[in-house]
Structure formats: structure tokens, C-alpha cells
């Protein structure tokens, strides 16, 4: 009977996941100042498609963060199952709201020197789409970590910790976006606005790598707020330093005879962006699972 119940619960969660994706689609339609259907299927706008890739990938990540947990040790009543699924659904829907807020934050504070909507809709700027895609997935990782794990016995402890870590995670992402511009010799905003896809892809990948680092900082159970926040600061600071060092390492080991700066800003070389991004996300993943 336990196996039958687990299969039934798993099937119900798959159906609920589809419902969450539909809710996310409706939310995107309502919160986007242009017709997604027109941009995707009539105008074939690749920048919009890239943003939606990040958005729906983020929704799936958040949903998994909400629902993944240990299997029940004994048979549950129908009321217990319904209650469990209702809580998970509420967290997933709240996560979609956070995801849309995160996109707004990125547009206003990271890509603040031009209008992201204009670049994506009028200019069909794939570089801008790449930045938003990376930031959406990074935000989703942070939200998934924030809503996963135990925060305390009180019913309000989970939502409060999720909000706190979402805010802290967004602050870390924005700060890293500014830090990335500081350690990059070329003007990132100018390059992206001039349709340099390589510059947008490199920043998008780097933001994703930072999202993995911040996920490490916010994931897990909270036993002590002071200890948790201390480790949050340590993990974020380590991420800043590691990703800065990685740019030098990538130049030396993977792009001998040239530099990432030259390949991206002068040659607009997407290959350099792919290499930088893959190394950055790969090392971030290693830090997450090993360190």
C-alpha cells in the first residue's frame, strides 16, 4: 500500500507541476508589457524566447525546491496529503511572484543604463535576453534554496525565512553585477546595447554561477540565524573572489595567447563567452557540492 500511495502522490505532484507552469504562463502574460505570443510566433523574436527559457526553467527549479523532500515514513491520510500539497503549491506560487520581482530588480539595478524592454522587443537584442535568462535561473536557484529546508516549528517561520533569503540573495546578485562591471575593463552596458551577444552571454553565465554560490549560502535547515547569516556572508564573499580569479585562470589555461576581455569586447567572440561561462558555472557547481 505504501508503494501505491507513493506512486499516487508522485502522479499528483506531476499534475500539480503542470498547473504551476500554466499559472506561471498566465503571470508572465499579465506582467509583461508586450504580447508574448506575437513576439514568439509572429515576429520570431529570439531575445524573447531566451528570456522565456530562463523564466520557465526557473519555475521548474522553484517547484522542485518546494516539493522535494523525504518520502513519508508511513501511510498518510487524504487530509494529510491534501494539506502537504497545498503548502507546496503555495510555496511554488509565491516563488513565481519572487521570480517576477527578481526580473524587475535585474532590469532596474543590473541593466540600469538602458531599457531592457526596448532592447528585447525593438532591437531583438539576444545579449540582453541572455543576461535576463541567466539572472532568472540564478534567482530561481536562490528562491528554491530559500523555500527548501526547515526554518522552525512555527507556521510563519518558513515564509519569513524565504522572504529574508530572497532579499539577501537579490542583493548579492545585484552586488555581483556591479562587481562584474568593476572587474571588467570594457563597458558591459555599452557592449550589450550595441548588440554584442558575447558580452551578454558572459554576464548571464556569470550571474548564473553566482546564483549557484548563493544557493549554497541559503540552502539547508536553519538552526541559528546568526550562524546561518555568517555563513551566507562567507559563501557570497568566497563566490566573488573565486569568480574573479576564474577569469584570470580561464585566460591562462583555456584562451592562451589572448584574453577574455579582447575576445568579447573587440572580436565579439561567442566562443570566449561559452568558455568563460562553462568554467564559471562548473567551478560554482563544484564549490556547491564539494566545499
Key descriptive features of the protein:
globular; 0% strand; 12 helices; 80% helix; 291 residues
Task: Describe the fold and architecture.
There is one protein chain. This protein has helices spanning 2-31, 36-42, 46-67, 78-110, 116-121, 126-147, 157-183, 188-193, 197-218, 225-254, 260-265, 270-290. The longest helix has 33 residues, at 78-110. The protein has one domain (2-290). Helix 7 (157-183) packs antiparallel against helix 9 and helix 9 runs parallel beside helix 12. It has 291 residues and is mainly α.
Strand content: under 5%
Gross geometry: globular
Which regions are unreliable across 5 or more consecutive residues at pLDDT < 50?
none
Number of helices: 12
| Mean pLDDT over all positions | 86
Q: What's the count of strands? A: 0
Structural class estimated from helices and strands: mainly alpha
Write the layout of secondary structure elements.
Blueprint: H1 2-31, H2 36-42, H3 46-67, H4 78-110, H5 116-121, H6 126-147, H7 157-183, H8 188-193, H9 197-218, H10 225-254, H11 260-265, H12 270-290
Amino acid at each position: 500500500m505504501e508503494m501505491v500511495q507513493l506512486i499516487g502522490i508522485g502522479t499528483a505532484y506531476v499534475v500539480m507541476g503542470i498547473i504551476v507552469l500554466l499559472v506561471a504562463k498566465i503571470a508572465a502574460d499579465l506582467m509583461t508589457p508586450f504580447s508574448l505570443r506575437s513576439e514568439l510566433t509572429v515576429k520570431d523574436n529570439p531575445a524573447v524566447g531566451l528570456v522565456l527559457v530562463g523564466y520557465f526553467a526557473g519555475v521548474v527549479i522553484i517547484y522542485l525546491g518546494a516539493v522535494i523532500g523525504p518520502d513519508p515514513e508511513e501511510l498518510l491520510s487524504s487530509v494529510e496529503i491534501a494539506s502537504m500539497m497545498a503548502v507546496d503549491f503555495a510555496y511554488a506560487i509565491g516563488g513565481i511572484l519572487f521570480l517576477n520581482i527578481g526580473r524587475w530588480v535585474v532590469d532596474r539595478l543590473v541593466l540600469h543604463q538602458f531599457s531592457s524592454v526596448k532592447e528585447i522587443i525593438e532591437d531583438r537584442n539576444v545579449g540582453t535576453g541572455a543576461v535576463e535568462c541567466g539572472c532568472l535561473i540564478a534567482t530561481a536557484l536562490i528562491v528554491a534554496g530559500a523555500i527548501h529546508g526547515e526554518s522552525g516549528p512555527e507556521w510563519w517561520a518558513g515564509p519569513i525565512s524565504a522572504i529574508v533569503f530572497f532579499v539577501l540573495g537579490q542583493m548579492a546578485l545585484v552586488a555581483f553585477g556591479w562587481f562584474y562591471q568593476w572587474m571588467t575593463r570594457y563597458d558591459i552596458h555599452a557592449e550589450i546595447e550595441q548588440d554584442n551577444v558575447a558580452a551578454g552571454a558572459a554576464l548571464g553565465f556569470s550571474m548564473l554561477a553566482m546564483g549557484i554560490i548563493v544557493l549554497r549560502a541559503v540552502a539547508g535547515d536553519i538552526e541559528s540565524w546568526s550562524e546561518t547569516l555568517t555563513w551566507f556572508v562567507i559563501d557570497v564573499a568566497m563566490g566573488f573572489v573565486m569568480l574573479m580569479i576564474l577569469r584570470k585562470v580561464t585566460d591562462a589555461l583555456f584562451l592562451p595567447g589572448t584574453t577574455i576581455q579582447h575576445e568579447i569586447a573587440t572580436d565579439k567572440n561567442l566562443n570566449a563567452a561559452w568558455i568563460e561561462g562553462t568554467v564559471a558555472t562548473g567551478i560554482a557547481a563544484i564549490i556547491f557540492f564539494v566545499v
